[in-house]
Design brief:
four-stranded parallel β-sheet, globular, Urease, subunit C, domain 1, 2 domains, 19 strands, single chain, alpha/beta, binds (4S)-2,6-dioxohexahydropyrimidine-4-carboxylic acid, about 425 residues, nine-stranded mixed β-sheet, TIM Barrel, 14 helices, about 30% helix
């Protein structure tokens, strides 16, 4: 089926387009310049007046929990959550069970996504076997099996010699590795940001330096190997300063920030509540202010969610015993739109650049991240006027560990196309439209 998306405000940062025009979906590809008369006659028309049409969002940091922890999420439920959030392509982290460090596991994720997933799924393979930081995986075979890049997310590669070798391997294969920057020797036992709130609640802290010292080392090793580094979930002011300085001296380093670190800080944690436990933790108000300043001044390359589903019986355990993590794919666009676009920190085109164009460009995703003629028809249509309260019980994710329950937001994803197939219509998933790229 081909489509004619009529009369919407089209925003495509990669082409510097922000204007009212029609969008055509033909044979799985997108066209702004028009299509032939015969194709046009067979199009199904979707009225987009009053709506905004944008390239599908690309989330480079999610946890699908598949294989191994399917009680928290799986590729089916995780990609349904993605669809509801306007995310048409996602990367999933390697801390599965078993760890995604072998061809067979990468192949399993690719095959299951193609059969049962609703959006494009790219597995991230571990950088080291079992994510133990000791033995480097075989980059060539994992890339060949379908890994998009490498990360031991959840763990930092502590051994500098091993990390240098990883950067060399990454350079050889032209991939940008993703690092979880946390010197665990400094954070052992910590459950929230090491600050006044942790002291008041009597909970062990995670110092900011455990993050930025790790980032400092990685920038140096990346520079030495002439490699490419992507720093996951940046949470401190000093981290952003170090990354910016490294960029200025020519290091090929990029970074992402998660919506929860931009919109909350540790003052939001009023009691010992595991729903707020996330790694890296919600930092101080000063850190948060620096991240927002970085958002405004172009120091952040990507907004990624770190969608980390956990069962409610796990998160109910309180700060000391609950696992780290919060879900985010279904709330990221409305949270960012409401709190940063409507508050004039950034404009809408910049937000879409951070959530679609930049991820596609920095991770070399061919045919993605823009509505350029002939590119994949991965498209999200959003109603920016729709105002509603986030309801944790109405989300598509298998888990409901969101800190944004009952938050008032604007911006509801209405329709989503993946590879030209309409999969979400009027906010409802069209069943049996599985099969990603
Ligand atoms: O909060 C987090 N949860 N941070 C991580 O780095 C890992 C993630 C998870 O897998 O739950």
């Amino acid at each position: 089926m081909d489509y004619w998306l009529k009369g919407g405000r089209v925003i495509d940062p990669a082409q510097k387009i922000d204007e009212c025009r029609d969008v055509f979906v033909c044979n799985g590809k997108v066209f702004l310049s028009g299509i032939s008369k015969s194709n046009l006659q067979n199009c199904s028309v979707i009225d987009c007046s009053g709506k905004t049409v944008m390239p599908g969002l690309i989330d480079v940091h999610t946890h699908m929990r598949d294989p191994g922890y399917e009680y928290k999420e799986d590729i089916v439920t995780g990609t349904r959550a993605a669809l509801a959030g306007g995310v048409t392509t996602l990367f999933c982290m390697a801390n599965t069970h078993p760890v995604t460090d072998a061809e067979s596991i990468v192949s399993y994720i690719v095959a299951k996504s193609k059969k049962s997933g609703y959006v494009n799924v790219h597995p991230i393979a571990a950088m080291t076997e079992g994510m133990k930081g000791k033995k480097i995986v075989d980059f060539a075979s994992l890339l060949n099996a379908g890994a998009v890049t490498f990360s031991d997310d959840g763990r930092w590669v502590h051994d500098s010699h091993i990390m240098l070798t990883i950067f060399q391997q990454a350079a050889k294969h032209s991939v940008r590795v993703i690092q979880h920057s946390e010197d665990m020797a400094m954070t052992m036992g910590g459950v929230m940001h090491d600050g006044e709130t942790a002291q008041r609640l009597g909970l062990p802290g995670i110092p900011s330096a455990s993050e930025y010292a790790a980032i400092y080392r990685d920038c140096i090793l990346c520079e030495l190997a002439k490699s490419k580094l992507h720093v996951a979930h940046v949470s401190t002011a000093e981290s952003l300063r170090i990354i910016t300085e490294a960029k200025q001296r020519g290091v090929n380093v990029t970074c992402e920030v998660a919506p929860h670190h931009l919109v909350m800080d540790d003052s939001y944690i009023k009691s010992d509540n595991g729903i707020y436990k996330v790694n890296p933790p919600l930092r101080s108000p000063n850190d948060r202010a620096a991240l927002i300043e970085g958002l405004k001044t172009g120091k952040i390359d990507i907004i990624a969610t770190d969608h980390a589903p956990h069962a409610i019986h796990e998160k109910e355990k309180g700060m000391l015993d609950a696992p780290f993590g919060m879900i985010g794919m279904e709330t990221s666009f409305p949270i960012m739109y409401t709190y940063f676009v409507l508050e004039n920190a950034i404009n809408l085109s910049k937000l879409i650049e951070l959530m679609s164009a930049n991820p596609a460009r920095l991770f070399n995703l061919a045919g993605k991240g823009t509505l350029q003629d002939g590119f994949d028809a991965d498209i999200a249509v959003v109603d920016l006027d729709a105002e509603y309260r986030i309801n944790k019980d109405a989300l598509f994710s298998k888990s409901s560990n969101t800190p944004f329950h009952d938050w008032k937001v604007r911006g509801k994803i209405q329709h989503v196309f993946v590879g030209g197939i309409l999969k979400l219509q009027n906010g409802q998933i069209i069943e049996n439209t599985t099969g990603g790229a």
